[in-house]
Amino acid sequence: MQRCCFSSVCSVAWLWVCVAGALLATGARAQPVALLPAPLDAAFSQDAPFTIVPETPILVPDGDPDAHRIAGMLAELLSFSEVTRPRVVEARAYARTVRGAPSPALVFSADAPDSLGTEGYVLTIAPERITLAANAPAGWFYATQTLRQLLPPAVEYEAAFPVPLAVPAGRIVDRPRFGWRGMMLDVARHFFGPDDVRRLLDLMALHKLNRLHLHLSDDQGWRIEIPGWPRLTEVGGSTEVGGGPGGFFSLDEYAALVQYAAERYIIIVPEIDLPGHTNAALASYAELNCDGVAPPLYTGTSVGFSTVCVEREATYRFVEDVVRTLAEVTPGPYFHLGGDEVRELSPEQYATFMIRAQAIVEAHGKRVIGWDELAEVDLVPESIIQVWRPAEAETQTQIREAVEAGATVVLSPADRVYLDIKYDGATVLGLMWAGLNSVRDAYDWDPTALLPGVPTGAIEGIEAPLWSETISTRADLEFMAFPRLAGIADLAWAPAATHDWTAYRLRLGAQAPRWTTLGLNFYRSPDIPWATAPSRD
Ligand code: TNX
Questions:
Q1: 339 close to ligand 1 (CB < 6 Angstrom)
Q2: pLDDT by residue (tens digit) across 174-205?
Q3: Contact yes or no for 361/323 (Cβ under 8 A)
Q4: Cα radius of gyration rounded to whole Å, the chain
């Protein structure tokens, strides 16, 4: 068996030995095995591939609805019509029909080493059987996403479906490096509706990302229905940057997104940015303003000019209603309070507000998360600081102290992972205040070295924010997110020993045919050797 060294640093030459081995093993597959994110360990062999045909059943443990559902999603990927969809069958019932005679099958198994945790899995491809073994449903789901990357890209587009499907023989043992592998979408500056968010969730799932942070309010828009506060959406949701129509999620739409995300093992993290970035709310309700006068709606792109009135009790009734409403429809454990760029309050006023707001979040059973300004104030236990300005000396000291007191961090360094920052001088969309973030910049940094004095154990993971001042369509969103988001996924999932730009750019380039088949509008950076469309297997 050819061991492909995903878990130790691979030279480029060695990587291509592995690739060539996989090519041989699959009878000259057009695409090398280039998993993204890289797994903990992968070994491909010269054995015959497993061949999936429409009659190949998917066997699941008896009475396990999660396995049934995940297997159903896999069956859908493996089908181009109801008729050709592999059947999902409970293992015991199947054993009775075949009377014990082994026949080719895809098998979900709960027999995986404990050390793989709840997200890890073992995917074994033998000539007679593919086994997806995991301790928990998320692990099965990730095994299906890895299997997906071993299939020809044509499976992503149903009208050109290759049958049979050959899967190279081998064994992949995998688990993530970090628990928080995220993206943030700013639906406030420009609104993106449920279809766009579902599409993004699908793309995230393919890359094993597991947190989608929705920035639901800002100066330019309020994007979530709050019962008892109808003007938030009627007025505050009625526009966006540039004066377009805006929009908002009804609570039912939001709940459906949460569900859709959960089926892909992605937790939605709702953010209501407070006390600043609140002009849309202030324009909707005069009582949130200290002078009792509602300002006009705002469709520009300045920051730092707005704040709710931290001295008025009406403000805290508002925060209570918003947090309670969102906590009730958000099964995930987090609530993001924003807390960034407040220029209209004294440090004392800011601290007074953030301490009361944190208590409200805590009272509704959620963990507080906030931008790194939050580290300036006393934190409730188990708070999470989202670090966007890691280089600032004062921020570093405050974060270190907060971590010593029990907080943890999510890493979002603006000059690395901000997806709204331009790639290079030729990028028309995006901003430049943090410099330029090339494909290499987004991937090629060490998360454990970002914050001196913060132990690795305090790092929840990495999140890439996409602010939308200049982003208004799904095509823009995809262009700014990809390929950089794939690099963040790799950095957050793959073992540190695989971190290597030279090998990564080959793996990234190999994704192009699948992404193209998916209709993904990714930036074809000249820094990456993009593979061309594969010949059909
Ligand atoms: C800073 S990062 C902001 C956002 C802007 C973004 C643009 C942070 C917490 N605040 O309000 O949209 O820069 O890149």
A1: no
A2: 999 999 999 999 999 999 999 999 999 999 99
A3: yes
A4: 24
Q: Are 288 and 319 in contact (CB under 8 A)?
A: no
Q: Which residue among the candidates 90, 287, 320, 341 is catalytic per the annotation?
A: 341
Report residue 382: phi and psi, to 5°: 65, 20
What is the rounded CA–CA span in Å between residue 18 and residue 406?
43
Q: From atom 4 of ligand 1, which residue's Cα is the shortest distance away?
A: 467
Contact at 8 Å (CB) between 124 and 131? yes
What pLDDT does residue 159 have?
67
520 neighbors 206 (Cβ within 8 angstroms)? no
CA distance 474 to 487: 20
| Contact residues for 292 (Cβ-Cβ < 8 A; gap 6+) | 286
Residue 1 in tokens: 């068996």
Residues with Cβ < 8 Å from 512, sequence gap 6 or more?
Answer: 522, 524, 530, 531, 532
Phi, psi of 50 (to 5 degrees): -85, 135
Helices (H) and strands (E) in the chain, counts: 17, 20
Cut 0.85: pTM above it: yes
* For ligand 1, atom 13: residue with the closest CA: 467
CA 420 to chain CA centroid, Å, is: 16
Count of all residues that appear for the chain in the document:
537
Residue type, 173: V
- Distance between CA 60 and CA 68 in Å, rounded? 6
